[in-house]
């Protein structure tokens, strides 16, 4: 390529898009489908949840080993016979978690024992299978029974969390709903469907009023919902203690701080007969999850809740009142938690006691946070916590492992799930939290180097184009090396231009005139 051609095309020889001598830059290889799938798994929540359980149970195993007396004895002569200590550690951990599985999901020894006893009595076929399955699945039914009010209460907590309000009043709202439902249940005598429906509605209204009190205080006076809901918890707790000492709630049995049992027409029907505690509240728990999905994803009021939770100022500019929305959020959340209290009394407890709420109110907060305030996550987290609770009780009675260990495992699970970067760091995926960081740095450096190369190429092309446009005379005048110079010229170049200290040197014509 000639110089003039390079000037016309605006690029230097061998540089730029117009050059055919330089090969195009190599294309980056596309990511395979497998690598993309692995990256999605690494960045997703499922891996974090699974590894959180793994780490929590590993730490729980260490605590089980420390608490086991036989393991501590074998560690005393570990150097002499290490196999004894290792065998004791393995046995302690596997038996403890095996007992937790038996108490939460399926009792394999109970299944086998029931089947063998029926066969010895002459039974066969379904006469053996059905009773054996009933025995084996009894722990699962207990897990579902415990999870039922927990899921409903967690749905109420999720409403407030997604609206940007941290509702701590689950215990008070649950007690209010349980008191109202229980009172209607053991005081009035109504037809079957009417009585049960009246009890459930009373529980929802009582919980909604109790949550609405905190909402009104926040909307009208700007009171912090955390403080107000905590105080309302204590008010409801001591109000229950007082009510159980009155004739209205205690009835004829005033020596015991318990209420009469709810009527048969007010109790939730049992799903598997009198031998199991699983009741129809399970369907209400599923309905609460569906209601949460519809309310927060498909309804107008749910859109208002989410808008206020995301940006209150922008919602106010759009015409949504944050104060009124706060009141509605806590009232709706309280209504759902009150329904959980009603279901717990009408289905499981069947009467009011001082400990009727248990830890459901505070566990619901953890379940809602663990489930990311979504319906599917809440259902799974509720089943998990219920399984840990029922399995932990069986583990304590069967293996002597303290029940407090289950609480430690629950706290560790929540801790790890709340810190995904920690989990990814522990499994060696710390870079996933900053995807493409190194690639962006390399691209930035490449862009800088490419910019420098492009700038140099542009400068070279401009110089060549300028030389091509000049006339031969101008090019000769501009030539930095015009030829051999005389000694005077070289001397003048060395001496520099004339100045006040050095007079101007005469030319050859002036010398001839002289």
UniProtKB/TrEMBL annotation:
Source organism per UniProt: Brachybacterium saurashtrense
Record lineage: Bacteria, Bacillati, Actinomycetota, Actinomycetes, Micrococcales
Keywords: Cell membrane, Membrane, Transmembrane, Transmembrane helix
Superkingdom of source: Bacteria
Keyword Membrane included in the entry's annotation: yes
GO molecular-function terms, A-Z: transmembrane transporter activity
InterPro entries: ABC_transp_permease
CDD domains xref list: TM_PBP1_transp_TpRbsC_like
UniProt-recorded name of the protein: ABC transporter permease
Membrane topology reported for the UniProt record: Multi-pass membrane protein
Ranges in a coiled coil: none
